[in-house]
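Hello,

I think I submitted the xanthosine-5'-monophosphate job twice by accident. Can you confirm which output corresponds to this input? Input:
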Amino acid sequence: TWTTTNVVEESVAAIREQVGTKRAICGLSGGVDSAVAAALVQKAIGDQLTCVYVDHGLMRKGESEQVEKDFVAATGVQLKVVEAEERFLSALAGVSDPEEKRKIIGREFIRVFEQAQAELVAEAGAAGEDVEFLVQGTLYPDVVESGGGTGTANIKSHHNVGGLPDDIEFQLVEPLRRLFKDEVRMVGQELGLPDEIVHRQPFPGPGLGIRIVGEVNKERLDLLREADAIAREELTAAGLDRDIWQCPVVLLADVRSVGVQGDGRTYGHPIVLRPVSSEDAMTADWSRLPYDVLSRISTRITNEVDQVNRVVLDITSKPPGTIEWE
Ligand code: XMP
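Support: Only one job matched these inputs. Its output is below.
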């Protein structure tokens, strides 16, 4: 029978059997999935696990600090932080195709993990300290939507499934591969993770890189970060965090429209709000947010974010629209 206790016990046993006395690293993204996967693996193999947080420059405002503090405080896990903004942004330069972006980000993640692995081995010095395993918080829907399920077309290459390079040097440990998000949250609760982690809204591994329609660069990322922070602030202030599944904020960097702001004409970019409700992200409906909340978000974004002169609301369900725009 399916109980979280059984799932935890079985996963812990399976992880111990798979990893043995070797060492593993786990990429933390700040999201629920990687946090729960890491906590499970830590329960199974203790300090044979090192978590690696890759700051790829595609995170939202304040997010890196949060991962570094909250998760370590909650679990006491060993954490290695890798600053990789330049590396990711130069790999993404000039690329606007969504799948290409996803593949590049997936590949760079792995390359950074390999480098972290080499550094850890060098630090440990001794033989038999090999880091052979990479833990990932891959969920069942990630597998299905990346075309890994039976008979399903590839919708998007999730950064941790279809986005992986072929020449990967790790064996993968994916304890959540058969679970849905709500089950992952229950497992996280069972493992004693705090509410701020367990109830976090989903955020994709490729981060804001797939929320800029068009080329990704630092200036656009900074702009999107500001808009996203405002939307999140207002949604939280309105007490809506638990009502919505997630609310991607998207910058249409390749689209411009005419506006009138301050002294005159502007020719700026639109920001899209994509609030959705969902059970498992396989299907979703657009959230009927209160108009006053939407209005506050729109006013603040157009007033406070440079180069944005329009805010639009995405009222498409999934299907036909996916949750993320890319
Ligand atoms: P879509 O856009 O396919 O998204 O409707 C479904 C859910 O998955 C998240 N998502 C990702 N999560 N790596 C992740 O960890 C990815 O590459 C990725 N792509 C989409 C998305 O935020 C939504 O919750």
